[in-house]
Amino acid sequence: MGTPAMTVKAVPREITMQAPVARCADQGSISRLASIAAGEPFETDTHDAIGTEDAVLEVRDFKLWYGEKQALFDIAMNIPRGRVTALIGPSGCGKSTLLRSVNRMNDLIDSVRIDGQMLLSGESVYGPEVDVIELRKRMGMVFQKSNPFPMSIFENVVYPLRIDGIRDRSVLEEVCERSLRGSALWEEVKDRLKDSALGLSGGQQQRLCIARAIAAEPEVLLMDEPCSALDPMATGRIEDLIHELRGAYTVLMVTHNMQQASRTSDYTAFMYLGRLIEYGATEDIFLNPHLRETADYITGRFG
Amino acid sequence: MVWLTGGALVLSVLMVAGLLLLVVTEGVSTFWPGPLVEVTLDDGRVLLGEVNRVEEDPGSTARITTRTMLRTGNFDVSGTHFTWFDDAAVTRTEEPEWAVLFERNSWGRFYGIPQELLIDGEVVADTPAAVWRRFLQLHGPCRDRLVERRSLERDEMGRLNARREEARLRVRAALLDHPEGSLPVLQARENQQKIDDAADEEFEGIAARIEQLDTENRRYAIRVLTADGSGKVMALDEIVRAFPANRQGTGGKLTIYLSRAFEFIFDEPREANSEGGVFPAIVGTLVMTLIMCMLVVPFGILAALYLREYARAGWAVSAVRIAINNLAGVPSIVFGVFGLGFFCYILGAWIDGGPTSPASAGSWFVYLGLLLALLGAAVFATWHRTRLPPARRSEQNFLLWVVPALWSGVALLFVTVVWFSPWFNGFYRAELPNPTFGKGGLLWASFTLALLTLPVVIVATEEALAAVPGSMREGSYACGASKFQTIWRIVLPRAMPGIMTGIILAMARGAGEVAPLMLVGAVKLAPELPVSAVDWSGSVGPLPTLFVHSERSFMHLGFHIFDLGFQSQNSEAAKPMVFTTTLLLISIVVILNVFSIWIRGRLRKKFVASGGF
Known about the structure:
The complex is a heterodimer of chains A (303) and B (613). By secondary structure, chain A is α/β, with parallel strands linked by helices.
């Protein structure tokens, strides 16, 4: 494959799993989980830290149904600009659904109905006059399994520009290099940009998808479990990359991996059964959660 | 169980291999020249020819119970092409050195020993070796003159006749719209007169040249002694090919073999198709298959795209799918009947003479088309409107206006056609009652086969589209691509190998189909190729010089095989040609398939290969 020796950089691990939640005084867990399951209303515990940030995406009372079944209940959260926000929670809690609602990928499913609204930089996402195509161009998305297109590496990266009708070779080349550098893939593929993207390794493919997602300078980068199909080496590289993207891009990431959330994100939101339970700075959520069920989930007592 | 299943497989493989082996051995050996044997029978008859077949004679009581079929030729002398004799009756067998096989333009093969070569009736050589030497010198030029004569007769005179016919039709067309004596009619007549005069003049020149060639060729003749001792004088230009078979070494036989194979592929048939080449049939098959592809590929791919990418699953789509699969199972002759009934007799007659001509069935199908279009538009628009989720209405508001607008445009077009149809008198009314498009022809055959192969393309394309991973589509949508962009840039390239497979399958099916073609335009012997070179020199600059006469009937390899095998007067002589033509057809299909596999492999490497992980 000609991959240069990969050095897994020691990720700064300020937060570790060694000190699980001793300071949580909340005791209402069992009954509250039961009441959520029974469909009773629930008030999200949003930490004050969120309020101090500039929100790039505002979610307001967002509800979503798959046919008759409601999958999201009154989600209200602000995604801070230039930060990495992680969505965690047990399987089926609606974190991927919420992520895919942001760029309206759920529109592709016939039975989906929504209520409430989202604002991207103050502009409505679900308004009647919104052009979905234009909206999606403002966001980048990385999927669970890498999905490079059946074309060359170069064409893969500049695909968002191509569909915008940009043909200027110099612009395309510049964007390609910038994006590949941004996704830490440039050095590995710069000599074979014309080769098929399908010849890359799994980790390289996923970084290629990230390059593609950031090619059009998105306002928000959505990542749906970007490392779940990768081995630990590749996962380490992607996590480093997410770390480097912080500041330049707003990242909203779904993950199943608690360590990953703690290592890479600035803010963490815990979801359960379609509801946003607790949302705050990653450090607080992991070390000093307000709610008992958050602590239980993080320490692996359920989920 | 493993023996049962394995045995079934082995049996199938053996049958296919046996078929191929039979066709290949018979087909390949057709052109190989065998020895000429002279047998003397106990009743005093002497026969000369090629051994065609030896078989057990159940009625024989003699010690040797086999009998032999000898191809003795000389039909014009003996009245038979083949002679049976009992092997028990043979008193002497030999292979005379100077026995020569003559292949002729007509009357089949001639076997005999060259006796004299005549120029202007004078004997210039009188031993076989001397005759043969002179023959080799003189035969080539004689054939060249004959080829030139034929080309003059067909191409030059054909051109003149076509010009005259055109002028005549112009007069008829003028008479249809204007009374006798009016200006357009007078002009047309004047034009016809001019063209006739010019053609007459040119005609004389050509006729003189033909006469000159004929006179020259008549000077040369060869006298051949047959086995039973009678002589026969043949003009040299009558002889296509001749060789002393028993004097040929392997190299000589190979030359004859290649010469015959070359004639087979690049020449026209002789002798009611049982000799000569199949070039017109190859051209007809290829052109028809190409036109069929041009019709079926866009339609099939678009239909499959709609079914797979746009239509939402429901009973209607399922019904359409079932209908398509059933269409694939309809006997092909049914398509032939439909093609004849609709394309030739209704659509063709309409094109020829318009709805008012007595030959036409009227414009009912235009009304039907209008009705269907309106119905389709209505169904599509309503269905689209009701099925859109609220969140997406705004997004496609634009489309919702465009779609009905488009459909109304189509409807308007139809209305115009219908409105004006009483005044539409057809494009070829002057030719009536001779039909131009109102009979079987290349176009209608292609249409019929396109219908026949449509399910193949649709099913293959649908499968290829379904095999494109959903994650690729999602990735494209997430980049902000529209549905069309996603299909055009991601889905279609990725599905291309599968689509190509479908197209090639359809081509192979279409190239091999016979039954419907018999009804819609394939003929035993087409006077002209369905493609011709066109001289555009008078018009705008360089243009492609090939013109497809889509109304002409054509020859087809599959039909040719049927014709050779079952419709030939001289079936014993035609039999080897059946196998050779079959071999050619199989080869064409195999070449198509190999080509498709190669293309698919290339595309797959480009679009689908998934690295090494």
